[in-house]
């Protein structure tokens, strides 16, 4: 059955479209308020009619109105339709009694963004719809960094809409406009090379080569030749001249990944190149001018490496003119579902035929997981789940996260306040050698208040020392 537009929706310009699937009687009492709030209604009488309706419209959100019988008999069809439209957020309207059924609760929890029990409270439903439409918009439109920006070529695949990533995008734009060296730091798997590619693509060198070198992956006996090249006959096996990676990047960008793993003797050669913009091939005596911008990346704490004698301080200052720190995935609030969906679409040809998306339970558990391997781990888990999943929707078990539901401990505001209070008291007592009087003065509270707080937190006054 074709989707039917309400007369009022046809005559009124509306900002958002809403698809309602199910008996119209369930939602009839709320139609006037929904349309007044800016929702243009489209209807499909039964779940079987939903695919046809969705082929004609692009709703901002969708609602399915059920009686208990529909939920029990149409569960598989519902999962399939929802999975075929992963960017759309679905809300279930169902009888309160239906939630007593375990299979219905499982369906609602795995496939729907939210639910609302009948009879409808329109004000509450409007709030749910607003949130659902907003999340759908973020998931669909906020995946790439400013692809419309003038002068930008095909954007590299950086995905994320969190505040911390928005700051990264701004930093990339700023450093791309100069030719100074950039040091990109961050944990393994956070996307440091993607950041380097984004800088290159936005720079004046975007039409030149982008040459990436993993300093930690090259054999120690070959790294000098790989970076600087060699002349014919310069060593056994050098049957012809070879252009090194630095020289091959001329006119473009050289990206030195894992720069912290570069041997000390080669750090001297690299420093000379950065100072003079010339190189000498192995076995050669000619100084070769090379016009290249250098970007470097590391997960190593280079300042600590300098203290340990593993990295040259002068090279560090040459490389660290500008710096970008890539955030770990656990700090990128809201980006995990976007990244998961991006990976799902990017490797679509690898997934099983039945697999259409992620269950809501899987998305929630991914959002609460710490991701010690960052984006690289997320890609690995999602790709494996896409192959191994034999259902319509990927679950937490398919991702190998079913036992990690409490990976990231959520702390309430009161708990956080108590922790900070306890730490401050212990620190003040330690600073003042156990003197409660001086500790109270440091904390700017009375001795009575300090004793009360110490009792609250189970802190025993240490023996005072003179």
UniProtKB/TrEMBL annotation:
PROSITE patterns: SIGMA54_INTERACT_2, SIGMA54_INTERACT_3, SIGMA54_INTERACT_4. One of its GO terms (molecular function) is sequence-specific DNA binding. GO terms for biological process: regulation of DNA-templated transcription. It comes from the Bacteria. Residues 158-387 form the Sigma-54 factor interaction domain. Keywords: ATP-binding, DNA-binding, Nucleotide-binding, Transcription, Transcription regulation. This is Sigma54 specific transcriptional regulator, Fis family. The lineage of its organism: Bacteria, Pseudomonadati, Pseudomonadota, Acidithiobacillia, Acidithiobacillales.
């Amino acid at each position: 059955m074709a989707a039917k537009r309400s007369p009022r929706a046809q005559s009124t310009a509306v900002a958002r479209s809403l698809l309602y699937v199910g008996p119209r009687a369930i939602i009839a009492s709320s139609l006037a308020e929904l349309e007044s709030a800016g929702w243009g209604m489209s209807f499909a009488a039964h779940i079987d009619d939903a695919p046809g309706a969705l082929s004609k419209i692009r709703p901002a959100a969708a609602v399915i109105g059920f009686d208990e019988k529909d939920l029990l008999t149409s569960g598989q069809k519902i999962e399939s339709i929802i999975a075929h439209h992963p960017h759309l957020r679905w809300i279930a309207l169902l009888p309160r009694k239906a939630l007593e059924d375990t299979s219905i609760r499982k369906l609602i929890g795995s496939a729907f963004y939210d639910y609302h029990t009948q009879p409808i409270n329109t004000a509450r439903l409007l709030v749910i719809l607003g949130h659902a439409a907003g999340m759908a918009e973020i998931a669909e439109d906020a995946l790439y960094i400013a692809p419309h920006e003038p002068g930008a070529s095909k954007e590299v695949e950086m995905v994320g809409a969190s505040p911390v990533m928005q700051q990264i995008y701004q930093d990339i734009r700023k450093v791309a406009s100069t030719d100074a060296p950039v040091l990109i730091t961050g944990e393994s798997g956070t996307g440091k090379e993607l950041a380097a590619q984004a800088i290159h693509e936005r720079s004046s060198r975007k039409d030149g080569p982008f040459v990436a070198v993993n300093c930690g992956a090259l054999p120690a006996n070959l790294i000098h030749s790989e970076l600087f090249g060699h002349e014919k006959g310069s060593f056994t096996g050098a049957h012809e001249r070879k252009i090194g990676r630095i020289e091959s990047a001329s006119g473009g960008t050289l990206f030195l990944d894992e720069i912290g793993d570069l041997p000390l003797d080669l750090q001297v050669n690299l420093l000379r190149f950065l100072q003079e913009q010339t190189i000498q091939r192995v076995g050669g005596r000619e100084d070769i001018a090379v016009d290249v911008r250098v970007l470097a990346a590391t997960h190593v704490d280079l300042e600590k490496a300098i203290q340990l004698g593993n990295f040259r301080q002068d090279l560090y200052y040459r490389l660290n003119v500008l710096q970008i720190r890539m955030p770990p995935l656990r700090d990128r609030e809201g980006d995990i579902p976007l990244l998961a969906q991006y990976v799902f679409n990017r490797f679509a040809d690898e997934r099983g035929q039945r697999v259409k998306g992620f269950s809501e339970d899987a998305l929630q558990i991914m959002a609460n997981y710490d991701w010690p391997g960052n984006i690289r781990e997320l890609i690995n888990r999602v790709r494996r789940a896409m192959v191994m999943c034999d259902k319509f929707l990927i679950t937490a078990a398919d991702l190998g996260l079913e036992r990690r539901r409490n990976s990231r401990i959520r702390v309430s505001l009161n708990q956080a306040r108590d922790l900070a209070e306890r730490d401050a008291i212990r620190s003040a007592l330690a600073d003042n050698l156990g003197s409660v009087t001086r500790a109270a003065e440091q904390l700017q509270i009375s001795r009575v208040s300090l004793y009360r707080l110490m009792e609250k937190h189970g802190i025993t006054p240490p023996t005072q020392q003179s």
